[in-house]
Design a protein that fits this description.
Blueprint (H helix, E strand, L loop, with lengths): L19 E3 H8 L3 H11 L5 E2 L5 E4 H15 L4 H6 L2 H12 L6 H12 L3 H15 L1 H21 L5 H20 L10 E4 L9 H12 L3 E4 L10 H7 L3 E5 L6 H14 L4 E5 L14 E3 L3 H8 L2
Parallel strand pairs: 4-5, 4-6, 6-7, 7-8
Antiparallel strand pairs: 1-3, 2-3
Length: 308
């Protein structure tokens, strides 16, 4: 069975010289076509890309920050000719003015990227806290942090964020979510008992933590085993504590065969438990799934599934 999709600008940082980007990278991050970027570069001299031996343009971290700032203004209706006439402080001031009117969350996302690249813990914390105050905790995670993590993931895949930078920001976010979880009361009278875990080889814990927060907030009894858990380790707890639901989030690439075997093993070992799956790797699962296995592609559907 399947449920329908678990679905401040101050860029004056110094990004290490190892960060270089192609024009395609810049297009992906700004949402502005490469052809348009080339025209802006030639017509307005907003930045000056270097060229590799192959004569292809390459951009550094300062270029990325400049283009993120320009893209933010441009996507909010400011003409490029006006942007080009503004100094960097004036661009920042206009960006803050737009953001104060409740515009899109792209501004804090861009700031988080810049803070991460520069290991600026204090600024990262300030951005996070301001967005929690502005949006509330849940919307901060779904509208700012998740899109930010997607962009950081792309930077990592293209070699423009080193593992230390990814660990730096992920640990701050993990700590924030864990603190929020700890502040919620535990409902010992809940009818459903969820056991959350990530399978062996899976270490991306932030989605798991956020689901733990949501379930606990909605009055469910939740236990989490965390990341990299062998299946045999689940059995004693499930048997003794009468677990009704198992939840895991599958992000790391595995073969379709390995994925199907994992699902079959879960279903066979725990036939009386509802098994809830989310994450990008669930798309490759073959239908029909075992009767007690559910793919959840939206967070609200996860909560609905728990009420059954």
């Amino acid at each position: 069975m399947e449920h329908p999709a678990p679905n401040c600008l101050n860029l004056a940082f110094t990004i290490p010289a190892l960060n270089t980007f192609t024009i395609k990278d810049i297009e992906n991050f700004t949402g502005i076509k490469a052809h348009t970027i080339r025209i802006w570069e030639q017509r307005f001299q907003l930045f000056q890309a270097r060229r590799k031996d192959t004569n292809h343009r390459i951009y550094d971290g300062d270029d990325l920050k400049t283009l993120l700032r320009i893209a933010y203004l441009y996507h909010h209706g400011v003409k490029i000719s006006r942007i080009a006439a503004l100094s960097e402080p004036q661009q920042n001031e206009l960006s803050l003015e737009i953001a104060s009117k409740g515009a899109s969350p792209m501004l804090p996302i861009h700031e988080l990227i810049a803070a991460t690249l520069d290991y600026d813990h204090l600024h990262f914390e300030r951005i996070f806290s301001s967005q929690v105050l502005h949006l509330g905790f849940e919307r901060c995670i779904t509208q700012v942090i998740y899109p930010y993590l997607e962009r950081i993931g792309v930077l990592w895949l293209t070699g423009n964020v080193i593992p230390a930078q990814e660990h730096f920001s992920s640990n701050i976010i993990r700590t924030k979510i864990m603190t929020a979880i700890d502040g919620l009361p535990m409902n010992g009278d809940a009818k459903a008992h969820y056991l959350l875990f990530l399978p062996e080889g899976e270490f991306h814990e932030i989605p798991l933590l956020f689901v733990q927060y949501l379930l606990k907030k909605h009055g469910q009894l939740v236990t989490s085993f965390g990341a990299n858990v062998p299946l045999p380790d689940l059995q004693p707890f499930i048997t003794r504590k009468k677990v009704t639901h198992l939840y895991t989030h599958l992000l790391t690439n595995v073969t379709q065969q390995a994925m199907q075997r994992f699902i079959t093993d879960l279903s066979t070992q725990f036939p009386d438990v509802s098994i809830l799956l989310s994450g990008p790797q669930t798309w490759q699962l073959k239908q029909p799934l075992p009767a007690n296995v559910f793919v959840v592609r939206q967070l609200d559907k996860l909560l609905e599934a728990g009420r059954r």
